[in-house]
Design brief:
The chain is of the alpha/beta class. The chain has a single domain, classed as Rossmann fold. Helix 4 links the parallel strand 5 and strand 6. Helix 1 runs parallel beside helix 2. It is globular. Bound molecules: S-adenosylmethionine.
Length: 205
């Protein structure tokens, strides 16, 4: 039996996310990307196929997902074995194989975890990213205190019902957090199903 888990939402959003990644990730030189919260491994295997010049480092908090990630990445020489990362812990305790990364990718984690995970993501990103490196986040967000459309309002309510610490984060709050961590918001891309892809850049000294 295949170990590969299939998340329907991940299957649907992988092509639109790839289309945006192509605007920022190079195709003509070697570089590296750390994925936080790789989930099933569907994303990392799909993206690595399109960027053979990039070394991808998948990671997961939930170690029961490692078998699925390993099954997806098997055919790819440019994907390293997954490592365990709890984003609320200090990056010095992560088993990173590179000192720094040009890109960090994080899809659909920020709203489905307590806010301390978002804080951990941004706090650690400032150290793990190379100067001018980018943190790329994807998911549904509030903006200026407004959640829209109505389907996202209901989604936010259902998240908070599952766990009061979960919920859509406001882009304006994230901008403040980012600034405290030496990152700036470079671009907001509107994505299908009322999601957004946010491009954050590490401000180089
Ligand atoms: C909705 S899933 C998204 C998975 C994948 N990125 C995708 O889009 O298919 C949310 C992910 O957040 C991860 N997560 C939860 N707590 C975490 C933590 N403290 N540190 C890092 N990841 C965490 C979960 O293990 C899960 O894989």
């Amino acid at each position: 039996m295949s170990q590969k888990l299939i998340y329907p939402a991940t299957e649907r959003n992988k092509q639109p996310i790839l289309d945006i990644l192509k605007l920022y990730l190079p195709s003509d030189r070697e570089t590296n990307l750390l994925e936080i919260s790789s989930g099933s491994g569907q994303h990392v295997s799909f993206f690595a196929e399109h960027f053979p010049n990039i070394i991808f480092q998948p990671s997961e908090y939930d170690s029961t997902l490692f078998k699925s990630i390993e099954a997806y990445i098997k055919p790819f020489a440019n994907i390293l074995q997954p490592i365990h990362i709890d984003v609320t812990t200090d990056y010095k305790n992560w088993q990173l194989r590179s000192e720094q990364y040009e890109f960090i990718l994080n899809v659909n984690m920020i709203h489905i975890t307590p806010y301390k995970c978002t804080q951990g993501l941004f706090n650690n990103a400032q150290h793990v990213l190379k100067p001018n490196g980018m943190l790329i986040t994807y998911g549904p967000y509030a903006n200026n205190g407004i959640i829209e459309p109505e389907s996202n309002v209901r989604f936010n309510q259902s998240l908070r019902h599952s766990d009061p610490e979960w919920g859509l984060r406001d882009i304006q709050d994230l901008k403040i957090l980012a600034m405290e961590c030496g990152l700036e918001l470079l671009q907001i891309h509107n994505m299908p199903s009322n999601n957004k892809m946010l491009i954050w850049r590490k401000i180089s000294e």
